[in-house]
Amino acid sequence: MIDYSEAYINKLIVHKIGNKSHDEGIVVSDELVFPNEALRNVLMDYFLKPFTKVTETYHFVHNVDIGYNVVNDLAKFVFKDQNDFKLRSVDILRHLYDQSNHPHIKSGDLFIVLFGDVLVNGELVDTIGIFKSEDRLPFLDIVAQEDNLEVVKQLGISIKKLDKGCLVFNTDLDNGARVLSVDTNSYDTEYWLTYFLNVDYIRDSNFETRAYLEMCRSFSEEVIKEKESKKEQIDFLNQSIAYFDENDMLLDNDFKHSVFEDEVLKEEFANFKTEYENDHGLVLAETFDISPVVLKKQKQQIKNYIKLDTNIQIRLDFRNPDSSREFIEKGFDDEKKMYYYKVFFNEEVD
Prior knowledge:
Layout: E1 2-3, E2 8-17, E3 26-27, H1 37-48, E4 58-60, H2 70-80, H3 85-99, E5 108-120, E6 123-133, E7 137-145, E8 148-156, E9 164-169, E10 178-183, H4 189-197, E11 199-201, H5 205-227, H6 230-246, E12 249-251, H7 252-259, H8 263-280, E13 287-289, H9 292-301, E14 305-307, E15 313-315, H10 321-327, E16 328-333, E17 338-343
Helix pairs in contact: 2-3, 5-6, 5-9, 6-10
């Protein structure tokens, strides 16, 4: 999604933010931070590397008018006049503090950064980064005390994990700028995405691919697994993944024809899809380009094994979806009063 190899930090400031429901307040920094080259390199990776793996893109919204979206409006001021950066960073801090009124929301450090030359979809754009560090992790420091060296336990920010962050790109601000978001500590997603940023998904191929596959996973859990078995559930998921692997574009009717041999199950899928759309307040596209990046990510989240109560697991291969249908049979042994799986093969392989 982004490339930051040519990007640089234009302006950087750090504030402290507490929990409003606990009346912890905020601490406003008076000065910008000017990191040396070594620290800049560390900060660039800490701030931007997590976003290279993000597939979902958002844009700012508002139920009345986009002009009322606070962060989008503040971003417009910064992009228009960078001299306003410090003042607007405090406005962002106060806006986030106003949303920090749930007792579970953690205090932390708020980094606000203005980047230059972030490559987004082939275009170099100025970008505002808002990053909240919530967790302090222990580390050891060696301290010289006269003629001795002492080992001291300290608490600090881990540069390997960004707790919360977003990137606001200087594109189409009049209609709601494009936004990427990361939330590792997702204890309250509404706090960050809905109340602070007020964003919604952009309906691109990444969104459509993820949404359709998540619907398929729900169908496998709520219908196939309940009516049939774990094997049939994995069979369906295998066939679904195979369709996405073999096609550049999804056509809803073609997908159903390719995946379902049983007409009754095909009709149940169509009915479930309608119910799923109603329950989630969305309309899944009937046709869309398949996103290979999202497909790869979704594959990693799908469990492709059957776990039995006899401490045995049967792992199936997404690359050969027909194998489980052709070479695995499920049955019931009347003598042992137990279910079994029968697996056919020619020889064992390493």
